[in-house]
Design brief:
alpha+beta, seven-stranded mixed β-sheet, 9 helices, 14% helix
Length: 629
């Protein structure tokens, strides 16, 4: 079965939306935004008097002293109190006395000849430059003659001046300091080491701070949403940024038993609504040392050791129990709840059904019917049911209700919702004028195969009511779940049919189809035969359990021009599938390549093959390239 598509975790989702902007001013603002976010994550711009957030506000000398400490190895290592009054205007009771003392003793800053420090005076560019240059390991002995001039020259040559437009004696704003310390992190020290590395931060291949690793290190959790979860968040939720299933959301979108994470520095909350209900079939390797559990035929690992305790001999959960797993940000088990505590209903499409033996402490060994179905989130569930009054077959719409720990299974005859208009909006965030929930769950189902779909994939796509197998709305009236019937064509694997062998004798389901998918050769049996789908060339293959369920022909167009996301013939643009297969063909041999290597249409002949029109979910699936000469 084709696996569901897993969205990889970028825990700081949404933070870099403004980076993808071709306009120069957009790039500048994106860099500034990145600087702000990184400073926020590292806590460099946080003082004992609060976070410096007003970009236009001047930074005082006392504040800058703490910023220097925050950007050094002394961060969180010095006492906030001191017994020394270094300056007449900085008594030992001053809030920044300890930071000023550290900055002075390390040569980052200096006082004035009259014995004052002037803590409330704005910090000038040349004063700030002295501080960061000293952090990089340089002293006055490294400059001959005009020391300040030498420091300013080094400031420019090190790239510390990026996005700062101030003269030597002008005061720096919060925005300037954000950029200054952002630039400092990627600058090299006197010894040639990237400064951020001296603080223990990870550097990427370009010599920049690995921002995501910092954000991940700052994330706390998991917390299970209950009546008191908000009290565990150490910042006001009224100003927090909220994500639900990695999509921007609102605080009241978070429901009981969602899995919560937060970042204090970013004042951001991430919630995950991913739950799997079913019978606990296995604890591996055993309850003395649980490392994973199998529920509804799928194995799940634990996010934390605490989560595994409930499945150990110290816990209350044992094999055979009906449980609900609460999955966190990496689809790992964050916690488990008894279905007595969690009344819910889950709908999905049956993938398989049959009879199996069950061992029960009270009833012994007995036979019962079961069904495996997939819900709109792409989670598979396995449940036993009584077939006295009905039987369940592949493709049936199934609803399982859990109430007081008891599962009730029903077959839904029809659960389409009348939307009036069956066209998705340009961004895919509404259908027929009805909004999709921020964390909408969508799968596209096709004869036992399915794939996870995101709203953007459905932009401007037109469907009909029969293509909606299941739709569910939340309490706000937004579409929260959709199970579609082969809308996108993404359930197929696309490649090249390279050979076809007729069966020996008259037996059906014995034809052999040879193919090239993802550059790899293979073969599959099937009984789907016609001149149309046995012609050698690009095709779509629906394969399950090494059997060909369906084969799809593709329409050819001759490519006249190429864009980053499309190809074009003389008049029409055709969008490329994200996994569009590109092959170079010569002397009967197909070699997998990438489109960036074959864009010279003066040299190559290019043919593109699409499955259906873009308005109905189609995409270019295969591209064949040949030499012109």
């Amino acid at each position: 079965m084709k696996k569901k598509m897993i969205a990889f975790l970028i825990i700081a989702v949404g933070l870099f939306a403004s980076v993808i902007n071709p306009v120069t001013i957009g790039r500048a603002s994106a860099k500034t935004y990145s600087a702000q976010q990184l400073m926020k994550s590292l806590g460099i711009m946080r003082t004992d008097k609060g976070y410096l957030s007003n970009e236009a506000e001047n930074v005082s000398r006392s504040q800058f002293a703490q910023l220097l400490v925050n950007a050094s190895t002394y961060k969180e290592k010095i006492s906030r109190e001191t017994n020394v009054s270094l300056y007449s205007d900085v008594p030992k009771e001053h809030w920044a006395a300890a930071y000023i003392q550290t900055a002075i003793s390390n040569g980052w800053m200096s006082g004035y000849l009259d014995g004052s420090f002037r803590p409330d005076k704005g910090v000038t560019l040349q004063e700030a430059v002295k501080g960061v240059i000293t952090l990089l390991g340089y002293t006055s002995r490294d400059f001959s003659g005009n020391i300040i001039g030498g420091q300013m020259t080094l400031y420019q040559s090190k790239g510390l001046d990026k996005n700062i437009r101030k003269t030597r004696t002008q005061y720096l704003t919060v925005k300037d300091c954000n950029n200054l310390f952002y630039n400092l992190l990627s600058a090299t020290t006197k010894e040639g080491v990237v400064y951020a590395q001296t603080l223990g931060y990870t550097i990427d291949s370009n010599g920049n701070v690995d921002y995501l690793s910092i954000v991940n290190n700052d994330v706390e959790g998991p917390i299970i949403a209950d009546d008191n979860w908000k009290s565990e968040i150490p910042f006001p939720l009224s100003r927090a940024t909220i994500y639900l299933d990695e999509t921007k959301a609102y605080l009241n979108d978070i429901n009981d038993y969602d899995v919560i994470y937060y970042s204090s520095d970013l004042e951001t909350v991430w919630a995950y609504d991913n739950k799997v209900t079913g019978t606990l079939e296995k604890v591996s390797p055993n309850r003395l040392n649980p490392q994973s559990v199998t529920v509804a035929g799928k194995e799940y690992t634990f996010e934390t050791s605490i989560a595994s305790v409930e499945f150990s001999t110290l816990g209350n959960v044992k094999e055979g129990d009906l449980v609900t797993l609460l999955l966190g940000k990496n689809d790992e088990v964050a916690s488990v709840i008894d279905t007595y505590d969690y009344d819910t209903a889950i709908a999905g499409i049956a993938l398989e059904s049959g009879t199996h033996l069950v061992e029960d402490p009270d009833r012994g060994l007995y036979s019962t019917e079961y069904v495996v179905f997939v819900d709109a989130a792409g989670n598979e569930h396995k449940i036993d049911y009584d077939d006295t009054f009905f039987s369940i077959y592949k493709g049936d719409l199934v609803r399982v209700s859990y109430e007081d720990g008891v599962a009730s299974v029903n077959v839904l005859e029809n659960h389409n919702t009348d939307f009036g208009d069956y066209k998705f909006s340009m961004d895919g965030n509404s259908l027929g004028g009805v909004a999709l929930a921020s964390n909408v769950k969508i799968i596209d189902y096709n004869d036992g195969n399915y794939t996870r779909i995101y709203p953007s994939r459905l932009g401007n796509v037109r469907i009909n009511s029969a293509m909606i197998l299941y739709a569910e709305k939340n309490e706000r009236g937004a579409i929260s779940q959709l199970i579609l019937d082969n809308v996108t064509g993404d359930t197929y694997d696309y490649g090249i049919l390279t050979g076809f062998t007729y069966p020996m004798g008259a037996k059906s389901n014995n034809y052999i189809y040879e193919f090239l998918i993802d550059g790899k050769s293979g073969s599959v049996t099937g009984d789907i035969v016609s001149d149309y789908n046995t012609e050698i060339g690009p095709k779509g293959f629906l394969i399950r359990d090494n059997e060909l369920i369906a084969i799809k022909g593709l329409t050819e167009v001759t490519v006249q021009s190429i864009g980053s996301t499309y190809v074009q013939d003389t008049k029409t643009k055709y969008l490329l599938a994200e996994d569009c297969a590109v092959y170079f063909y010569k002397d009967g041999i197909y070699t997998k390549t990438t489109i960036d290597k074959v864009t010279d249409l003066m040299k190559f002949k290019m043919s593109a093959y699409y499955d259906k029109e873009e308005a109905y979910g189609g995409r270019v699936r295969v591209i064949i390239v040949e030499n012109k000469n």
